[in-house]
């Protein structure tokens, strides 16, 4: 069932900030997934010497979890975090992109949200982030930045 993707934790604040700075995210009712794509070094690799020409990806997927006080007291936050960790454990090892770093942010619904639905949302979010669906502008123009001078 495991595809060989290694999982590590994101633990330091600068790592969380670096992932958030990419502005890649997918929002669901019970959590938000932020992502930073794998960094590849193409310049130093000779395509004739590499098994995959021009691509060198770190196979380790990094995951961090955070649940703010908006969700509730310590007991509620810990319950939400435990549920998110278990949903992520099953989804990221199979559907996570190698070398990417993710932050899962718990929302208030994570406490009582149906666990099967949470797992399905986790798989859906990972697929959407990997495909770049979060980068595509909407057709009705809602993703365009507002011109503050004319408002």
Strand and helix map with partners:
Elements: E1 6-9, H1 13-21, E2 24-27, E3 31-36, E4 60-67, H2 74-95, E5 101-106, H3 115-131
Parallel strand pairs: 1-4, 4-5
Antiparallel strand pairs: 2-3, 3-5
Task: Give a verbal description of the structure.
Helix 2 (74-95) packs across helix 3 (115-131). Strand 4 (60-67), helix 2 (74-95) and strand 5 form a beta-alpha-beta unit. The protein has 151 residues and is α/β, with parallel strands linked by helices. The chain has three helices and five strands; from the N terminus they run βαβββαβα. The radius of gyration is 17 Å and the shape is globular. It has a five-stranded mixed β-sheet with strand order 1-4-5-3-2, sandwiched between helices. It has helices spanning 13-21, 74-95, 115-131, and strands at residues 6-9, 24-27, 31-36, 60-67, 101-106.
**Rg over CA atoms:** 17 Å
- Cα shape: globular
Percent of residues in β-strands: 15-25%
Q: What's the quaternary structure here?
A: single chain
Number of helices: 3
Helix fraction, binned, reads 25-40%
Give the spatial strand order of the biggest sheet.
1-4-5-3-2
Could you tell me the mean pLDDT? Answer: 79
Say how many strands there are: 5
First-last Cα distance: 53 Å
Based on secondary structure, the structural category is: alpha/beta
Low-confidence stretches: 40-52
Element pattern in H and E: EHEEEHEH
For the sheet with most strands, the description reads:
5 strands, mixed
């Amino acid at each position: 069932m495991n595809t060989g993707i290694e999982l590590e934790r994101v633990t330091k604040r600068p790592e969380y900030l670096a992932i958030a700075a990419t502005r890649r995210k997918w929002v669901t009712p019970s959590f938000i997934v932020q992502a930073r794509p794998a960094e590849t070094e193409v310049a130093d690799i000779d395509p004739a010497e590499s098994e995959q020409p021009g691509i060198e990806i770190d196979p380790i997927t990094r995951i961090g979890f955070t649940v703010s006080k908006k969700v509730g007291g310590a007991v509620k936050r810990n319950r939400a975090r435990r549920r998110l960790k278990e949903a992520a454990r099953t989804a990221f090892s199979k559907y996570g992109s190698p070398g990417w770093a993710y932050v899962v942010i718990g929302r208030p619904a994570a406490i009582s949200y149906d666990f099967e639905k949470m797992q399905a949302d986790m798989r859906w979010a990972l697929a959407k982030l990997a495909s770049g669906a979060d980068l595509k502008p909407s057709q009705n123009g809602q993703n365009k930045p507002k011109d503050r001078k004319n408002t």
